[in-house]
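Re: the request from the purification team.
They wanted to know what the chain is likely to look like in 3D before they choose a buffer screen. I agreed to run a prediction and write the result into the notebook, where they can find it.
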Amino acid sequence: MFCPVCEKRKPARFCPAKGEKICAVCCGTGREVTIDCPSNCSYLVAAHRYEDEHQRSLPADTPLLDEKIPQDIVYNHQQLMAALAFSIAKFCAVQRSAADTDVLSAIRALAQTYKTLSSGIIYENPPDAPLPRELYAALTAFVAEVKKQQAERAASATFKDLDLFYLWVFLYRMGLLRTNGRPRSRRFIEFLRSQFPQSPELKREESRIIVP
């Protein structure tokens, strides 16, 4: 027998996503790239544990890396930050195919939008891909609703577009550090979900394990 993926090497690891054994090389190279791994796969868990022990650094040309975030921005807007994180996690709980790359694409676009808004220019540039674009729209609508509620209550603890820009940049950097860069990685999404363990809306994904 040969590995059903490469058809060259001997299968040695049971792949829960495929429901059969594949070779160790295909497991390592296809993990979260061509293979949509369930979060409870033992090989995926081991790989993530290794990644946690060997944090990757961000390249110098990473978008938004040169933006200086005020030290107190997250502290002053803790509730808003939590609400944004929850909104993203909630969206991904419904859109099970969402990956970290989709979330980061939407957040980056939102950061760019709110940077222009803070300068008085109304210009939106949502992502082209359907899923990030949908998340972008959902988060934009959420922020608009929060602003509306604050205006109706004449709330004193209002926030500015520049504040939102910094919060998006903070979330973007957090996501880059939490994900592993693989196309189908959900490490950042899982991290956001773990911040709200009691929420029934964010229950863990249904098992995608194929029973042999």
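For the purification team: Helices lie at 24-30, 42-53, 73-76, 78-94, 100-118, 130-153, 161-178, 187-194.
Please add any questions underneath this entry.
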